[in-house]
Amino acid sequence: MFVRLQGTGPVSQRIYRGLRSAIVRGLLRPGSRLLSSRSLAQELAVSRKAVARAFERLADEGYITSRVGAGTFVSTTLPETILTFTPEPSPGFRPGKRMVPNFSAQAKRLLDQSPWPPPASRAFRAPLKYDFHYGTPALMDFPQTVWARLIAEQARKLSVTTLYYGSTTGYDPLRQAVADYIRRYRGVNAKDACVVIVNGSQQAMDILIRLFVNPGDRAVIEEPGYQCVRQALVAAGARVIPVPVDNAGLDTSRLPRLKGIRLAYVTPSHQFPLGGILPPERRLALLRWARETDAYVIEDDYDSEFRYDHPPVEAMQALDADGRVIYVGTFSKVLCPGMRIGYIVVPPCLLQPIASFKFLTDFSTPTFEQAVLAEFIKAGHFERHLRKLRLRNARRREVLVQALNQHLGVRAQIAGANAGVHVVVWLDDLSADDIPELCRRAAQVGVGVYPVTPYYLCRPQRAAIMLGYASLTENEIRKAVMLLREVLDEMVRQH
Predict the structure, then answer these.
(1) Per-block mean pLDDT, blocks of 10 residues, the chain (495 long)
(2) 91 vs 4: CA distance, rounded Å
(3) Are residues 452 and 464 in contact, defined by beta-carbon separation less than 8 angstroms?
(4) Is 411 in a helix, a strand, or coil?
(5) For residue 382, what is the enclosing H or E element?
(6) Which end of the chain lies in a sparser environment, N or C, as judged by fewer CB atoms within 10 Å?
(7) Cα(269)–Cα(419) distance, rounded to whole angstroms?
(8) What is the pTM of this model?
(9) Would you say 454 and 417 are in contact if contact means Cβ atoms under 8 Å apart?
């Protein structure tokens, strides 16, 4: 228990003033238990007699009460004068004066952007009956029984390895398991030693931006693209260069030929959010561009496990002969976003610098969770779960596309439906300015739909919404689309 010894004079009086101030200010709430006089004396490095005197005075004045065998507590009934007590204002304080923290330049750049948290955050929204929020998994899909058993097994065999500070680059068995998985399933050229475990892909982006970008440096992003990476670049002082995407992903013919470009951030296997898949000729063109401009390419492979019409495409990193591609992956879409475990595959020359930046960020990713995940992968549970999840999401996607075609027909064009866990729906009956109202009205009938506008640096001309379907059942998807059609029809009639 923290007690600030206030004023001068005998120690007992200073303890009394400190405890009284904490009670008056509400730091010690009515009914809360205090430390014993012996324990408090040990914490404050004073005599027990001094604490006892302070307790006696506080009890006499009605601030605390003692119960034999139970302890000492803050009184539940305090004098009227205490409840109305207000501390003296600090020097220079004026009523109505607004305190403005002296933020760093980086903090000001961040706060000047979109409101925080980003629009995609779920934590601050009221629950909806049918929520098409992107990135929300279905609880029914998570392998709870197997996961709980593995947690219990790891807890029974706790050791220094899992209880002490872990390796900054990650738990070695998990690094090996990740390397084996992405070599087999994504064609990534991954050695165990070049895998770094991080707290989700966003930490990976933050580390890489810190490593490469100085204020004023240029960085290429997709337009539209993942807004959290754009915000991190702007906060770092980068000059962001948006390059348009089309149905095949990043338009490499429009890459800038400028000096001082440090990074390019791309989602080649399933462009976010529009869903294009970068063809081989564009991948090679992007790699040539990176070599000529001396830039690094961050390949964000955020949901490539989900392909429905064709086999998975090979990661772009597999084509990289110059060590220009930094591959980033995550378990958020396959398992759950709350796990906060991702990984970076880096060229050998970048391993130590990235490890150094991660060390300054958080020392290491929690080892216990890594050990559970490593065993989950090693025992084959991950691949079995992935096969089951592909089938379920494929069915959800099929039902969503059928429902949209049935209820909206030619009024809507669907993009990005052949991969991932979301689609983008372009709406011909509305303008881009109508989308906030559409989202508001849909929420009123229990359906959560979301604009694509936050992912654009330049405002789009057409109206579009993004629908994530991984958390809904097939029947919920059908009902939600019917309600969405009713909302859309009403807005069209009112126009």
Answers:
(1) 79 89 85 88 89 91 86 79 54 60 84 59 63 87 95 90 89 96 92 94 96 96 96 94 96 92 96 94 97 96 85 89 95 90 95 95 93 96 94 95 95 90 94 94 95 92 94 96 96 87
(2) 21
(3) yes
(4) helix
(5) helix 381-407
(6) C
(7) 9
(8) 0.81
(9) no
